[in-house]
Design brief:
- With 316 residues, this protein is of the alpha+beta class.
- The chain is built from 9 helices and 9 strands.
- The C terminus is likely disordered.
């Protein structure tokens, strides 16, 4: 009897432990179901709110992403989707894909603005900007589209670069769709000398370049880029790093110097809007689709990112 009792007691303890584990498992599943239901409800609400916000923006501010794509004067490249800044014969090209509502884009621009301007002004690089509307799709609203259209309107009168900088210096919080109001975009145009004109206002309020912006965003998606900002030096991704080195103003200057070794700085004056600019110095340079976004960067819906919660909504 004494030999069997320990075995019987052990079996009882094991059965009790198994029962407790089953109960814990049922409790975990119950909690998971509750949390999942809550998350689905929140995301569904966010999607509805985003759709309402996007529709409200279109109704009250005018403009539409449908219709013929009207490229701004001075745009270059395939389908005229590139906004160039700097000498057309610069030995290197810095390609930047951005969304005016993207907070990491603002951080990049505000940190590297002086460096990029210095490199462009000295003929070391030509900067080629491309516009995307990721945040509108992720969070709802129309600020990405409205700001991109306004920037294209500024490009049409040769003021893209200064207006671009003003927008990033005054970027609202990511979830705040302040750029969805044309009145705010026109107000900010007052910070660029000579930009706030009847022609610019009409261009902004009518959404003259909305379809062009939509086409640019489609090119971003089709290019396989995973987030904004995407920054390429002669087709090679340099943001957030290159060759194991983190990007910094000093490293960017070093990388450009290495790429330009033995080459002359560009001297060609940028073409005025409406003129036919010379081809890019890096024409034909391969792009770098699939480059991973930096932590916190804005990602296209469906793109994994540990630092970005992508809310389902209208796919940009």
């Amino acid at each position: 009897m004494s030999d069997k009792n320990p075995e019987r007691n052990r079996s009882a303890r094991e059965r009790l432990a198994q029962q407790r584990e089953k109960e814990k498992g049922r409790e975990r599943r119950r909690r998971t179901l509750i949390v999942s239901s809550a998350v689905v409800g929140v995301l569904a609400l966010a999607a509805v709110v985003g759709l309402i916000a996007a529709n409200a923006g279109r109704d009250t501010e005018g403009g539409s992403a449908s219709g013929p794509a009207v490229a701004p004067s001075g745009a270059i490249g395939e389908d005229s989707l590139t906004l160039p800044v700097g000498a057309s014969d610069a030995p290197s090209t810095l390609t930047i894909w951005e969304d005016f509502r993207c907070p990491v884009c603002a951080q990049f621009e505000n940190a590297f603005r002086a460096t990029i301007a210095e490199l462009a002004d000295s003929g070391q690089i030509r900067v080629e900007y491309h516009l995307a509307t990721i945040i509108d799709g992720n969070l709802g609203g129309s600020g990405s589209l409205r700001a991109a259209n306004a920037a294209a309107c500024a490009q049409g009168v040769g003021e893209f670069a200064p207006y671009h900088d003003v927008l990033y210096r005054n970027q609202p919080p990511e979830a705040d769709d302040a750029f969805g109001k044309n009145s705010r975009l026109i107000e900010l145009a007052g910070e660029v000398k000579g930009l706030d004109t009847p022609g610019f206002r009409s261009c902004v309020e009518s959404g003259e370049h909305d379809s062009w912006v939509g086409k640019s965003d489609a090119a971003f998606r089709e290019g396989g880029f995973q987030g904004t900002p995407t920054v390429l030096l002669n087709g090679e991704s340099v943001f957030p790093s290159k060759g194991g080195q983190q990007i910094s103003p000093e490293n960017l200057k070093k990388w450009v110097a290495e790429a330009n070794k033995g080459k002359k700085a560009g001297t060609a004056t940028p073409s005025a809007p409406g003129a036919s600019p010379a081809p890019s110095a890096s024409s034909g340079a391969p792009s770098a689709p699939g480059a991973p976004p930096a932590p916190g960067a804005s990602t296209a819906p469906g793109t994994p990112s540990a630092a970005v919660a992508v809310v389902p909504g209208t796919a940009p």
